[in-house]
Records
---
Amino acid sequence: MKLFYTPNSPYARICRIVALEGGLGDALELVRVPLRTPDSPSLKHGPLGKIPLLVDGDLALGESRLICGYLDQRGDGPPSLPGASDWQSQARESLMSGFLEGITNWSREKRRDPTEQSAFILEVEEQRAIRAFEFIERTIPAPPAVPPITYGDLALVAALGMVDFYELVPDWRGAYPALAAWLAAYEALPSVRDSVPTMAAMNPLTR
Ligand SMILES: N[C@@H](CCC(=O)N[C@@H](CS)C(=O)NCC(=O)O)C(=O)O
């Protein structure tokens, strides 16, 4: 199995953590690709040029959530996705993945040339993020002794990784201490620690 990815992609990060925690580290070959360029190797497997993209034989599977479901079936960890009729878990997952999507939009806008940035988008995403931070701070559980490897939890981990990397919300740990303590439990895992976004891995072609 191959996973086409970029090191700083939060969506690929979720898949990489699920794979590692499910014991699939050796079975999954990571293939780093450039984005938004016509010579990306991922385009041999599909027209979209988006990552993460999992390729296994003649299967080319996009969308991080579907990829996690596929990895769940092959790995030896508990499922990262909730049962189809577990609506409370699905709702929690939808909150975290919506938070991640907003943070991704915000960081993408901030990475554009300042003369091209939309003040409106920046404000909308900042307000969405602050509302989400306040809600999550009120509802986050106590730091888990054994952090559950679920898509929803990892979407929150990945979103906070983006907040830190792009310095979107200065001193959020001081403002939201329960969330900071929850994240620290995940940051103790090597799969989480080793996949944080870094300056060295910036992809100049991804905006
Ligand atoms: N909904 C998708 C989002 C994936 C996504 O937005 N990937 C970004 C990188 S983080 C991408 O491929 N960008 C390149 C492009 O849009 O051309 C998922 O969950 O996998």
---
Amino acid sequence: MTTADSIEQAIAELLPHFGERLSRSQSVCEHHGHGEGYHAQHAPQAVIFAETTEDVAHALRVCNAHRAPVIPFGAGTSLEGQVNAIEGGISIDLSRMTGLLELNTGDMDCRVQAGITRQDLNLLLRDEGLFFPVDPGGEATIGGMCATRASGTGAVRYGTIRENVLGLTVVLADGRIMRVGRRVRKSAMGYDLTHLMIGSEGTLGIITEVQLRLHGIPETMAAAVCQFETLADCVETAVQVMQMSVPIGRMELLDDVQMDACIRYAKLDGYRPIPTMFFEFEGGPEAVREQIATVEAIADDNNGSAFTWSTQAQERAALWKTRHAVFWACLAYRPGYTGISTDAIVPISALTEMILGAKHDIEESGITAPIVGHIGDGNFHTVMLVPPGEAEVEKARALDHKIIARALSLGGSASGEHGVGLAKIGFMPAEHDAVALDVMRTIKRALDPNNILNPGKLLPPPAPPC
Ligand SMILES: Cc1cc2nc3c(=O)[nH]c(=O)nc-3n(C[C@H](O)[C@H](O)[C@H](O)COP(=O)(O)OP(=O)(O)OC[C@H]3O[C@@H](n4cnc5c(N)ncnc54)[C@H](O)[C@@H]3O)c2cc1C
């Protein structure tokens, strides 16, 4: 059992090493006690700003000896209560670890420190003709993205962070430094510890370096928009694009309410607040033209209107900036309200039933909840906008649970990308059988026997014996 004393003892022992890089300021601790989700803040007792793998190893050796909880912190953009220090402890902030340590342009890979953001990495890569494609909406760090198994609008073509990580440097709970993975596209050598760490949400180790796959910036890129009178036609278009294996770059659905919020927030002229699809096409000029023609024909068949496309970089950038700003557009739609995001995912063939069902659930609940989706993956979010008050949050939770239950009944998952944190722990037994949960707990105990790494997250406590 952690005591306040053991945390204080760890802090006293860490102070000589970290000096000013160990902060006990109330505002710094509070900032590290929450992410971008709606969960109540739990501030750690101290925050350490790490700069090297050895810093992290030293901190973990000390915290493990004192049984003091440690919460890794990237940019704090996670949405499910992942960084909240619910048992107190010490937050290890990696946002100063921003180095590009190695760039192999010929092999199209690189090694970065875990605190670099994807935006900063792409600025460093731009002149090499390369880019890193995983693009969650927040300004997340690469380490945080690995820890939450993040993805974004580019996943339909390039996969999630899981498909784009080749190897990791991880500091284990006892301070040992583990290097896993090689600079190769595949390897059949033993247990895949790299991918065990992907999605572990800071509960198995702290990632300090990441070996990433990179991609060439495509020769031609075009963006297109198409609007639909009905949500069913809009979703059906997406399903058919996927079923026809069009190598789409990105494909995002915005329902009528989300479009209304975006039109107001981004001052989008010339669009109506009706279900809308944003597309991006990539490749050689001929291939792009072919993809556009195929998708336009599919949209036509499904009563799409106003199919417009452009290869102009500025127009493309404006469109995708609008898409990445949907969360803020939602918050501006109902000032003073909190946005609680759902993150269900289903197999493509179940998408129409799922999204129309979710829309029905939303209307029945009376909650304003725009729908926006990484529709090509079967993943979509509803941003439930709730006024202050626990009763309203409860109503939103009930809607979230209804949508998740629907997704699970269609063979889907409670979270396509935001992760478990605190919010989705209750759904772990619905998605994983008792044996799988037992194996997960065994792994956790083996790697972190003192349960210091982000305790209380991801894994539900075992059911009491009958
Ligand atoms: C507006 C908005 C849009 C978003 N859109 C998307 C989206 O499209 N797709 C998506 O996947 N997510 C999205 N998110 C959620 C969020 O951006 C991701 O979960 C992101 O991967 C979190 O990264 P972070 O650096 O902020 O991590 P943090 O929030 O700091 O941490 C997240 C978790 O990872 C752990 N952690 C952090 N760094 C490390 C490390 N180096 N080693 C081990 N554990 C670590 C933490 O302990 C915590 O459990 C969005 C969030 C916002 C606010």
---
Amino acid sequence: MIVLDSVDKVFNSGKANQVHAVNNVSLTVADGEFLVIVGSNGSGKSSLLNLVAGSVLPGRGTISINNTDVTRLNDYDRSKWIARVFQNPLSGTAPDLSIIDNFRLAALRTSAKGFSVGVTTAFKNSIREKIATLGMGLENKTGQLMGTLSGGQRQALTLLMSVTDICKVLLLDEPAAALDPRSADIVMKTADNIIRDFKLTSILITHNLKDAYNYGNRIIQMSEGCIIKDIKGENKTQLTQNEIFTWFS
Ligand SMILES: Nc1ncnc2c1ncn2[C@@H]1O[C@H](COP(=O)(O)OP(=O)(O)OP(=O)(O)O)[C@@H](O)[C@H]1O
Ligand SMILES: [Mg+2]
């Protein structure tokens, strides 16, 4: 569960370019909830996600994840619980390392100190099996350098490697925005499957009307740092694409 209580973030406070990015937001995302955030450019969506991740710290308010107050914890100290995928496929992986080495690095992030990860055949096989579920044919190319893959391939792999067994939260900031329609579809469906399999509490930011309609069991709209719409459960299911479309215009 993610709880934001009266969270506020002002950038460049007291200067001419001051921005009230997140305006006194209170929001509880229940365990296993998949929250979709929509809103125009600059409405505070990424700032809200960054506050949850810890890459931005709030000016006021508190944030807790699974009943632990993380308000003053930096992003590294929260990272074992949080998986993140960004819009840019270049973020989140090491381009000069192979696919399998990237998975090793990701596994090391959560393993105990001194524990050797990823040197066994069992580890390699488990990674190949995971990759095969993408249906992109990458399971036989695990020696290939990450930097030589397409954006869609990288993004799908980033998603797979970022979620570990102890992960509780998945944060997706326009993960499919830079991808062709087929890759975008694979990434979104993979995310949806992972969220169900690992029972993750998830937040997706999107400008894609179809994704906002198809995914998640709750949708909020942000404007000028505030939540101006919040539709859950049955009411989200009953929303039509046309209704969501009117929010975008
Ligand atoms: N690190 C920062 N320093 C200064 N201003 C920032 C910073 N991060 C965000 N802002 C400002 O805060 C406001 C909200 O930005 P944010 O990135 O959260 O918007 P967004 O809803 O994610 O927009 P988009 O749809 O374009 O990604 C914007 O005016 C932005 O310029
Ligand atoms: Mg953004």
